[in-house]
């Protein structure tokens, strides 16, 4: 993957209720974040994001990460990247899509 990233497994999974519709990856990512206390946890699905935030975890969504990358001069446009993600199945409602573009000066 690269020397700037490491793959780790959570030692203990955070308990969730049966009503929570989490994938195994989201559940483990939240559990590992509770364990190691990251600067940010990157995830996008609303229910896991809300749950992670309720645990006090700092969550970044992909659109927010792209906004920060543009602000830091790492990318020139957010629209092109969001459009490519959406074309490949990334689900983002039109309202938040337009809001992030407006925040980035691309509306």
Structural topology:
Elements: H1 24-36, E1 41-42, H2 46-54, E2 59-60, H3 62-71, H4 79-87, H5 94-103
Parallel strand pairs: 1-2
Describe what this molecule looks like in 3D:
- This protein has 107 residues and is mainly alpha-helical.
- It is 48% helix and 4% strand.
- It is built from five helices and two strands.
- It has helices spanning 24-36, 46-54, 62-71, 79-87, 94-103; strands at residues 41-42, 59-60.
- It has a two-stranded parallel sheet with strand order 1-2.
- The protein starts with 23 loop residues before the first helix and ends with a helix.
- 16% of the residues are buried.
In terms of DSSP E residues, the strand content is under 5%
Strand order of the largest sheet: 1-2
Helix content: 40-55%
Please outline the major beta sheet: 2 strands, parallel
Question: Which structural class is indicated by helix and strand composition?
Answer: mainly alpha
Number of strands: 2
Shape: globular
Over the alpha carbons, how many angstroms does the gyration radius reach?
15 Å
Rounded mean pLDDT is: 90
Number of helical segments with 4 or more residues: 5
What separation lies between the terminal Cα atoms?
35 Å
Stretches where pLDDT is under 50 for at least 5 consecutive residues are: none
The helix/strand series, from N terminus to C terminus, equals HEHEHHH
């Amino acid at each position: 993957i690269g020397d700037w990233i490491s793959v780790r497994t959570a030692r203990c999974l955070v308990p969730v209720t049966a009503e929570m519709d989490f994938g195994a990856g989201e559940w483990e990512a939240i559990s590992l974040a509770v364990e190691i206390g990251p600067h940010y946890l990157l995830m996008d699905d609303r229910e896991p994001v809300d749950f992670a935030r309720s645990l006090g975890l700092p969550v970044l969504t992909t659109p927010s990460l792209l906004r920060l990358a543009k602000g830091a001069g790492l990318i020139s446009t957010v629209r092109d990247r969001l459009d490519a993600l959406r074309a490949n199945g990334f689900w983002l409602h039109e309202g938040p899509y337009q809001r992030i573009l407006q925040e980035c000066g691309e509306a």
